Amino acid sequence: GLPMLTGVSGASSRSIRLLSSWALWGDDPDETVTLVRPIASPREISELQTAGNPGERQAVMSEFWLRRDPNPSTRENEYLDTYRRRLDYIERTFTSGVTRGILSDMGHAYAKLGEPDMVEDHPFQTEGYPFQVWTYFNPRLTMTFVDRFGYGYYEFEGDWQDVERAFSLG
User: What are the tens digits of pLDDT across the range 68-124?
Assistant: First the structure.
């Protein structure tokens, strides 16, 4: 299966706390960059990094989320809400050892594209390494992740340019 959060004690309270505490507004610019890198353009990352103070960073991030809001006339930003839920899931599911979920290949892909339409899990292989195949139907994309070391740390075996193309079509 997928790697689970290490350190069982406090795991549930940690995931509950995360729901409201994602640094998505530029208060901590390094953390914000880490969290939004999967969905941000290089220009947007640069804008955030060159903003001179917390107010400017907040303005940059307000624009960032507004550009992604599917329905700007409502108070909610459905994309932001969905992205927060993705981050919660990524942190719980893809954190492995000392690697944060968002920094893993699976976490990056999940943040970018959301839940795959189909997951084939091959945890026990007589020859070769454990692997997973994620399939997205729209836009059409298949991703294979391989666990070379047997620690539940799956790495993407493919071209990230294909993922970028699928993301820009989505």
Answer: 999 999 999 999 999 999 999 999 999 988 889 999 999 999 999 999 999 999 988
Quote the Cα angle for 23-28-30, to 5°.
100
pLDDT in tens, 1-34: 444 433 333 444 444 444 446 899 999 999 999 9
Q: Are 49 and 30 in contact (CB under 8 A)?
A: no
From the list 136, 126, 130, 125, the residue with the least C-alpha distance to 163 is 136
Prior bond to 38 cis, omega within 30? no
Q: Side chain identity at 72, as an amino acid letter?
A: P
| Phi, psi values for residue 67, rounded to 5° | -60, -25
With 0.70 as the threshold, say if the pTM is over it: yes
